[in-house]
Amino acid sequence: MFSAPIQLFIALALLWAQLGAAVLVGLGIFILIVFIEIFIVRKSQMLELKEMQIKDARLKAINEVISAMKVIKLYAWEPSFLQKITKIRRTEVKYLGQVSYLFSAVLILWTVAPFFVMAATFVTFTYYGDDHVLTASKAFVSLTLFNIIRTPISMLPTAVSMAVNAYVSVKRIEEFLSEKEIDEMTVSKLPFTENENPIEIQHASFTWNRDDPSLLLKHVNISVQHSKLVALVGKVGCGKSSLLQSILGETHKVSGVVTVRGSVAYVPQEAWIQNLTVRDNILFGRDFDQTRYDEALRACQLEKDLQLLTAGDATEIGERGINLSGGQKQRVSLARAVYQDSDIYLLDDPLAAVDSHVGKKLFHEVIGKSGLLRDKTRILVTHGIHWLPHVDEIVVIDNGRISEQGSYEHLLDHDGPFASFLKEFFLHDGERKRASRSRDVSVSIAEIAAAAPEEEEEDEELAAEKAKILQRLASCTSSAHEAAAESPAVVAASPSQSSPPQHASQASSSVNSHCSDTADRLDSKRPSIVRQTSKISQLTSEKLPSRDEDVDGTRKAAEQSGRLIDEETMESGSVSLKSYVFYIAARGYHLGLMTIMAHLAYTAVNIASSVWLSTWTSDPLFSNASVTGNLNNSAYLRDINDYYLSIYGIFGAGVVGLLRTESISFDPQVFADSSVSSSDEFLRYHTDWSNR
């Protein structure tokens, strides 16, 4: 490609020796084509940039749909999301079509450029003077030189396309790499010392975007002592997770001071799992320590899970932990943090993804005062109020501000933000309980179990803990009786506690008795249904790894060894005729036939133009005139030249038309429409055949 300018220069110099100044006309046409190409390239750059942006939006939408496929299926949102993605795709195809048209124009221009240059040069040469006769020697030497020019010129469309794509990609990468980095001084990271508080935040305000004036967290003041367990509570979206991100230095600090002393381990709300083995996910690059590793597995309740896996902790985890449940992924993430043996642990609601029984074990054996992390500084984001009596300090966050903080006993001594948070929790919990009990009686038990597979019997100890919290809340504020009345299910979990006020029974009696009795019957049967559903799910999951054993013996061996991804193998040999037939069928037989015929016709016309040029130069009239120098009948010779040139021009127009026809078949919109139509015909044919 880099030698193309040198080839062009040498070929033009030799053409000058053959045809003289007539070469300048061809050179002018060549320069004109170059300027046209520059205009097309600039236009295509803008379209490529827009197409890339639309493609990013489409991929983002598809990733979101795939990630939330379970929710979309449950709510039957497939048509709306399909419509959204289809709309984005149509816009992308529109830009792809415009880019395709422009690049087809580039391809046509560069393909016919040597022909136009050659035709213009020959016409100018024959009309430049009466003594200029296009002999066979001049014609075929010039034709050879023009073919030499054709080679570097034919590379230019590919080079232009690659250059445009590279330019757009480099600009996008440059824009990303030129983004401002997060200031490393947002958080002052110091070595760990036992005499000073590991985490101190003083009058700090944070935002996600430096250019956005709205604050994420405002005037935060927190001081966490060594080996203390601090719980962050508040409504959904109030800023609990954002506070952990701010401690990690992932947000922009607007004002204040943030000091972190020691190493930090972070457990996100959504577990981050690598496509590695279970052991490698837990080690996370650290050296293997058998004792510490076994302690992490035991405390995080992973020992039984590893026994069920094919290869134990050597089992390979799929992309995003696809072969693990949500609870298993969260426990692997927690075990990874435990194994790191850091000084500070930031736990973003890790117990939400596990059931109450496992959650109780994780809290007491890992997070709580008797757990593995009892000597570490821990900040726990949680929505489980039954854990709050077991923490050292509670921080209540409301709308990006710390509304209250202190010990559990201190915060319950008065009717403050923490008490309001607990009342709101019990009110919503009571509403949820009543809603589940007043289901439509026409719904079958199986449908209820299938629609709510996550429901299970709550741990009795945790239910009693909630009842104690509610009783304590009722004793601290008279307004809490309303919350007690709205949550009869929680109080009923502890029979020894005092009964709710009178208006609670009045509220509950307003429910239709027939629906309540039916709901009671459903509730009495639900635990067994859930257990059966779980058993079926477990049996199904046990069968899933072997579903392809009869298809591929290699995969069976890989699954037995705990591997999910086989080593890629490369096929050797030539492309079979069957592959070409399938490709043509996928494009549509009409479009495929048009492409083949256009290409064959283009090749035939190209050969015919060379044959016609040979006929032109071998005409005896021109040969005798050039040999004898008899040019008296120059008008007649000029008419003959016009005849040959006109036919030669017709061949050139045919080349352009056939190239345009061939390029249409590669247009994305045409290709997509033809493929869909071909698929419909294929399905219709097989449906008709199967019905016979």
Automatic annotation (TrEMBL):
Gene3D superfamilies: ABC transporter type 1, transmembrane domain, P-loop containing nucleotide triphosphate hydrolases. Residues 486-511 have a biased composition (Low complexity). It is found in: Vacuole membrane. It comes from the Eukaryota. One of its GO terms (molecular function) is ATP hydrolysis activity. InterPro entries: AAA+_ATPase (IPR003593), ABC1_TM_dom (IPR011527), ABC1_TM_sf (IPR036640), ABC_transporter-like_ATP-bd (IPR003439), ABC_transporter-like_CS (IPR017871), ABC_transporter_C-like (IPR050173), P-loop_NTPase (IPR027417). The chain crosses the membrane at residues 6-36, 99-128. Residues 517-526, 544-558 have a biased composition (Basic and acidic residues). Residues 199-424 form the ABC transporter domain. Keywords: ATP-binding, Membrane, Nucleotide-binding, Repeat, Transmembrane, Transmembrane helix, Transport. Residues 486-560 are annotated as: Disordered. GO terms for cellular component: vacuolar membrane. Residues 530-543 have a biased composition (Polar residues). Residues 1-165 form the ABC transmembrane type-1 domain. It holds the Pfam family ABC_tran. This is ABC transmembrane type-1 domain-containing protein. It comes from Macrostomum lignano.
